[in-house]
Write a structure and sequence with these properties.
about 140 residues; alpha+beta; 3 strands; globular; binds zinc ion
Length: about 140
């Protein structure tokens, strides 16, 4: 898979706890969120767009051999980047065209490359959704 600056982050369907905010007390998530915004310094941590309302995104890494889903980072991103990351959800809201344009602009790539990356991400997602994942949030204290 090509290493794009902005890429899709499809969470396997089998990940029960894939959403950190739903398994943390609300004040803990708020603290993590605000800390990510502070680290971002008013700019999207992926595309660098300034002056945007930022959203916190949990970045997970998957070890396909051990079946461990590990929290790798909590980043503050703009809405446009977040919509690319969660492309499945974005397609459902009818905003895929905007997301594809943002993907091409940030990554400096063609529509064909976007389609290829999306195909690969969907394939990986199907593969990963077939198994159970163990959650590793050992890095969580770093983000609190
Ligand atoms: Zn962005």
């Amino acid at each position: 898979m090509k290493d794009f600056k902005l890429n899709f982050g499809l969470v396997p369907d089998s990940c029960w706890y894939s959403n950190l905010r739903s398994c943390l007390p609300k004040d803990a998530w708020d603290r993590i969120r605000r800390k990510a915004y502070a680290r971002a310094g008013g700019k999207c941590m992926i595309c660098g767009a300034p002056g945007q309302r930022l959203e916190a995104h949990e970045h997970w890494e998957y070890d396909d051999k051990t079946g461990v889903q590990k929290l790798a980072n909590v980043v503050a991103v703009c809405k446009a980047c977040h919509e690319v990351i969660h492309i499945g959800r974005t397609q459902l809201t009818g905003r895929e065209k905007e997301a594809s344009e943002h993907f091409m602009k940030v990554n400096g790539c063609t529509y064909a490359e976007y389609r290829k990356a999306l195909g690969e991400a969907n394939e990986k997602h199907r593969e990963r959704s077939r198994k159970e994942w163990k959650l590793d949030v050992s890095r969580l204290p770093e983000f609190m």
